[in-house]
Design brief:
The protein is α/β, with parallel strands linked by helices. It has a single domain, classed as Rossmann fold, CATH 3.40.50. It is 42% helix and 22% strand. It has helices at residues 17-32, 42-45, 52-59, 67-84, 102-111, 151-162, 181-194; strands spanning 2-8, 35-41, 88-94, 118-121, 124-127, 133-139, 167-173. β4 and β5 (124-127) form a beta hairpin. The model has no long low-confidence stretch (mean pLDDT 97). Bound molecules: flavin mononucleotide. The site of flavin mononucleotide has 19 residues, from α1.
Length: 197
């Protein structure tokens, strides 16, 4: 059984290009192997920006947390549990204003926790997550892969490496708001069809 965590963050919900293409990937993986899928729609969930108060709640020993701190810590704990219990992360990734959606960044800020998903050592931080594949389906209006304007690829690679994950695949659906978009969309679909775990 392969546990898939399917993370979405399109402002366009189920109509988003990233959502539709990543959904095709999940459906394809389901045909070829036995999978259990947990979906997390970050655009719908609308996590707040991380605050000092929330971080302080994490850092308070569990048996000393007040009820507000218990509630705040639960937000991060539950997202981390979804992450740690998954074998494969399928990430539907729209490009918005040259970056990741702010709702996805709010997720990143909740799942990067010292002592839980990474730890500090004399040689720098070490990721505590292991043995997970990360597949990122990146939908863009323009064409960026391999150029300096692709801030997402480097950022996401660095972030998942930081947590200990280095088996990362990017599938790009680019130029979706440009002439030739249908061919490029079809090329992404073909890549999705060929992807196997
Ligand atoms: C608010 C907003 C910002 C965008 N910024 C960019 C951008 O910086 N670069 C780009 O190539 N496309 C940009 N686009 C186009 C999206 O990347 C494209 O529509 C893609 O399909 C988004 O994924 P989604 O359909 O899953 O939401 C932007 C779209 C929106 C709505």
């Amino acid at each position: 059984m392969n546990n898939i965590l399917f993370i979405k963050s399109s402002l366009n919900g189920e109509q988003g290009n990233s959502t539709i293409l990543a959904q095709e990937l999940v459906a394809n993986l389901s045909v070829n192997s036995e999978v259990k899928v947990v979906e997390r729609d970050l655009a719908e969930q609308g996590l707040e920006h991380l605050t000092q108060i929330e971080m302080a709640a994490w850092m308070t020993p569990a048996n000393e947390r007040n009820s507000a701190q218990v509630k705040l810590t639960h937000i991060s704990d539950s997202l981390i549990e979804e992450l740690t219990t998954s074998d494969t992360l399928v990430i539907a990734m729209p490009m918005y204003n040259y970056g990741v959606p702010s709702t996805f960044k709010a997720w990143v800020d909740r799942v990067a926790r010292a002592g839980v998903t990474f730890r500090y050592t004399e040689n720098g931080p070490v990721g505590l997550l292991k043995n997970k594949k990360v597949v990122i389906v990146a939908a863009r209006g323009g064409i960026h892969a391999g150029t300096v304007s692709d801030s997402q690829t480097q950022y996401l690679t660095s972030f998942f490496n930081f947590l200990g994950l280095d088996d990362i695949t990017f599938i790009y659906a680019e130029g979706l708001n440009m002439p030739g978009n249908e061919e490029r969309y079809a090329a992404a679909q073909a890549e999705i069809k060929n992807y196997s775990l």
